[in-house]
Design brief:
Layout lengths: L5 H8 L21 E7 L17 H8 L2 E7 L5 H10 L3 H4 L8 H4 L6 H7 L3 E6 L7 H4 L16 H4 L3 H4 L9 E4 L7 H17 L5 E7 L6 E4 H4 L21 H4 L19 H31 L6 E7 L4 E2 L5 E2 L5 H4 L3 E4 L8 E8 L3 H8 L14 H5 L9 E7 L12 E7 L3 E8 L5 E8 L17 H13 L19
Parallel strand pairs: 1-5, 1-7, 2-11, 3-5, 4-6
Antiparallel strand pairs: 2-10, 7-10, 8-9, 12-13, 13-14, 14-15
Length: 503
């Protein structure tokens, strides 16, 4: 596992040597430790100005990117909320923590696991959680060992914080209309409530003698696409691009393109999933509005960080828990192995880091966030994590890096939803050039389908070329890399490359 040396820490964090004194645990004592503002955004795909989107209005997140580094190709380990978040927070992959659905909790399989904030708490930090950081209800959403005090607003199931308009406050269940231009003022929606509480918490944390790890979790742009009307008014719906590649990929197995049925559960969406063009445009408009809404709330947080004089000693990391389909490839929401679902934004800003405003195309994974944050904050990196610190990329964004990013998604043979690992698991790798997927029966490990997409000629992943004879050698090489596991794809070590480069 890559560790950050004392010299690298001084270089990256920009902290004076006179204020540093390393303890036996490898942590840095006292006020010299940087704070951490850890911002999670639910269902945020890389649809931001700093990721090249020409339509979205995201000035605050774009400003954060200018003060940090944009990881252009960051991948979650499973594209649905709970497995992705629990994997990130433990630094372990879904098959290790045995979390593949929305109900399981990693502590059932690994009761002694040390989470990212728990590690910071043990290293002398005051850790707090406001909003959605984990997922679910009760123990699964709060994970008490992670925090110095009880998590706040970890669960928000009341329709009164999901909807604002009278027509949506009437009815039953959580899923009413799929969109809402909210006629609201003040803290009505849950994300406004979370932001205001987090702004207050920053002031409280500044007064403490300990450095802080503050996790703030926003729920938008997750469905329903509800945002105050002023954010809808930022966009002309007619100018919002329609989805590219609206049909399923040619030659893709049914397992790959099956709907998760998340969107279809809303009362204004046809149950057969056949969404009229006008509704498609409204949904995409709503998603853009929600992104700008969250961008504004992120801006409030960063402005308060500046007002309190904390920015120069605070690491800021912003991530989306997975990507999201908005009609591309004939798919909506997430819950698959394609690029639109597996890839998500990741922005890291470390005080004093070199190359601010730069970007890297290195393949990185969400399990890498844990060792990275520990390293830049002068904490030891726990043994057994299944990621690698990304700190070398801060000084040299184009250095040779991972050969592949790994993700997975389970299916049952016929049903839309799965429990546990499902009957069939789709294991995927994304290399510099290819996305390769094997669908394997869980019990026998027999491969029942394969997918191969060449990003040089098919960046939209619309043609599965795995069955073609001319790609047999490529399939065999990628299958070997996939079966070799994540360790075989790690960045080059001191003794040179660990294996022949696979494109």
């Amino acid at each position: 596992m890559t560790k950050l040396s004392r010299r690298d820490f001084l270089k990256i964090a920009g902290l004076g040597a006179a204020t540093m004194a390393a303890g036996s645990s490898g942590a840095v004592r006292g006020a010299s430790k940087p704070n951490v503002l850890f911002i999670a955004v639910d269902d945020l795909r890389p649809m931001l100005g700093c990721y090249g989107d020409k339509t979205v209005l995201s000035p605050n997140i774009d400003a954060l990117a200018k003060r940090g580094m944009v990881f252009e190709r960051a991948y979650c380990q499973q594209a649905v909320c709970s497995p992705s978040r629990q994997s990130l927070m433990t630094g372990l992959r879904p098959d290790t923590i045995k979390v593949w659905d929305l109900a399981a909790h990693f502590r059932d399989a690994l009761p002694e696991a040390i989470t990212l904030p728990q590690h910071f708490k043990a290293g002398g930090y005051h850790t707090r959680s406001i909003g959605k950081i984990y997922h679910g209800g009760g123990r699964a959403s709060r994970d008490e060992p992670s925090w110095s005090e009880p998590a706040e607003h970890a669960v928000a199931l009341s329709p009164k914080v999901r909807y604002a308009n009278p027509e949506n406050l009437k009815g039953r269940g959580l899923k009413r209309d799929s969109t809402e231009a909210g006629l609201v003022s003040g803290d009505v929606y849950i994300d406004q409530i979370v932001c205001s509480r987090a702004v207050g918490a920053l002031g409280e944390l500044k007064k403490k003698s300990k450095p802080f790890f503050l996790a703030v979790g926003f729920r938008k742009p997750h469905l329903p696409f509800c945002a105050p009307k002023k954010y809808w008014d930022m966009y002309d719906r007619a100018k919002i691009p329609a989805p590219e590649s609206a049909e399923h990929p040619a030659g893709a197995p049914e397992l790959a393109v099956r709907s998760w049925r998340e969107l279809e559960g809303y009362r204004d969406i046809p149950r057969d999933g056949k969404i009229p063009l006008a509704k498609v445009r409204k949904l995409r408009h709503g998603y853009y509005a929600c992104v700008s809404y969250i961008d504004d709330l992120v801006g409030r947080l960063l402005k308060e960080l500046d007002r309190l004089g904390l920015r120069d000693n605070t690491v800021v990391v912003l991530w989306g828990d997975h990507g999201f389909h908005l009609g591309e490839q004939g798919l909506w929401a997430k819950a698959n192995n394609y690029e639109w679902s597996a890839r998500a934004p990741l922005i890291l800003s470390v005080p004093g880091q070199p190359n601010t405003g730069r970007r890297t195309r290195a393949l990185v994974e969400f399990v890498d966030i844990y060792p990275t944050l520990a390293g830049v904050c002068g904490l030891s990196v726990p043994k057994g994590l299944e990621g690698v610190s990304m700190t070398p990329l801060l000084s040299k964004p184009d250095r040779p890096w991972k050969k592949a990013a790994f993700s997975q998604y389970p299916r049952n043979r016929t049903s839309h939803r799965h429990r546990k690992h499902g009957q069939i698991m789709g294991y995927a790798i994304r290399t510099d050039r290819y996305r390769y997927v094997e669908w394997r029966i869980w019990d026998t490990k027999k491969i029942v389908a394969r997918e191969l997409y060449d990003h040089r000629s098919d960046a939209k992943e619309m043609l599965n070329i795995a069955p073609r004879a001319e790609h047999k050698t490529t399939v065999e090489a990628l299958s070997k890399l996939l079966h070799g596991g994540w360790r075989a794809a790690l960045p080059p070590g001191k003794d040179g490359d660990r294996a022949r480069t696979v494109q």
